[in-house]
């Protein structure tokens, strides 16, 4: 196992001598004797076999090699500060890691705004973001595999805070045969290729969406589905916020269904284990709430038990 010959204190002193412009200045800032600093840097250079500093008059100047080592020394001291801060935070009950599961239909700009609010307060907590769909979102809640979950379905026994309304609508390519139909019924749709999003659950169930087509292709996310439709193949129910601009540009066509032309539901914020959410989790929770309040998209009342599906 590797054992370093130099010490962190030697690197800290070397960095201070450079930053403060000399041994005397650094000694005053570090509250150490100048001779102690001279000895530490001399010992460091002797150990490395590399000249880091050269003294001209009363000032110390970096050598070319010293410039390279200084950059690495700054990274070293920064990492040590972060390591000790992490230990301090954990000692205070601050989570080292959080997992946020997000239903794929949820608008990412709202999520990203929340992450911007959370980051300055995160204290180096490692955040894992999981994309989930349908049963996968429910499993993240029921199994407690995520600290916070944004879902389209609230399982029984849990409370969900409504975040934003989602509108799903059926679309296809403007040149697709379905696009030329002035009015469509669901029976006609069943004879055409439908693009659906894969349920991320370990035991996926067909919980929502119209899934009666004779032929279905399953993809991982809405962007893959949109890409396939832009090539002229299939139709899919997709969130309005993802395709509104493409429809306006004439690159995708909204299908004219006689019934069930749109599907609307809310996404909800759920705490699988509210009593176990630590300080960092609470900061993330508040950031998510604030982000959606700023958008003006949330409704005021929590929902318990099961709600609408997530598409």
From TrEMBL:
Keywords: DNA-binding, Transcription, Transcription regulation. The keyword ATP-binding does not apply. Residues 7-63 form the HTH lysR-type domain. Gene3D superfamilies: 3.40.190.290, Winged helix-like DNA-binding domain superfamily/Winged helix DNA-binding domain. The keyword Ribonucleoprotein does not apply. Residues 291-311 are annotated as: Disordered. It holds the Pfam family HTH_1. InterPro entries: LysR_HTH_N (IPR000847), LysR_subst-bd (IPR005119), WH-like_DNA-bd_sf (IPR036388), WH_DNA-bd_sf (IPR036390). Belongs to the LysR transcriptional regulatory family. This is LysR family transcriptional regulator. It comes from Pseudaeromonas paramecii.
């Amino acid at each position: 196992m590797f054992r370093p010959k130099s010490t962190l204190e030697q690197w800290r002193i070397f960095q201070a001598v450079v930053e403060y412009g000399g041994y005397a200045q650094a000694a005053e800032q570090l509250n150490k004797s100048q001779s102690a600093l001279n000895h530490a840097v001399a010992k460091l250079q002797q150990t490395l076999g590399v000249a880091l500093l050269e003294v001209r008059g009363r000032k110390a100047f970096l050598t070319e090699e010293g410039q390279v080592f200084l950059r690495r020394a700054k990274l070293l001291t920064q990492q040590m500060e972060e390591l000790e801060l992490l230990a301090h935070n954990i000692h205070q009950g601050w989570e080292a890691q959080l997992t946020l599961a997000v239903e794929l239909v949820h608008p990412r700009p709202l999520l990203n705004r929340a992450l911007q609010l959370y980051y300055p307060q995160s204290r180096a907590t490692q955040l894992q973001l999981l994309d989930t769909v349908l049963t996968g979102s429910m499993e993240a809640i029921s199994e407690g595999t995520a600290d916070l979950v944004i879902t389209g379905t609230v399982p029984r026994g849990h409370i969900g805070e409504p975040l934003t309304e989602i509108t799903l609508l059926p679309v296809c390519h403007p040149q697709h045969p379905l696009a030329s139909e002035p009015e469509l019924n669901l029976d006609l749709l069943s004879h055409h290729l439908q693009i659906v999003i894969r349920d991320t659950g370990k035991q996926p169930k067909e919980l929502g969406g119209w899934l009666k087509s004779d032929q279905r292709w399953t993809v991982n996310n809405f962007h893959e589905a949109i890409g396939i439709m832009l090539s002229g193949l299939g139709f899919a129910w997709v969130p309005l916020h993802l395709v509104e601009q493409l429809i306006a540009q004439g690159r995708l066509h909204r299908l004219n269904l006689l019934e069930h032309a749109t599907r609307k539901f809310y996404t909800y914020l759920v705490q699988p284990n509210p009593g176990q959410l630590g300080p960092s989790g609470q900061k993330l929770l508040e950031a998510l709430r604030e982000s959606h309040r700023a958008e003006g998209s949330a409704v005021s009342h929590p929902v318990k038990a099961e709600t609408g599906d997530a598409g």
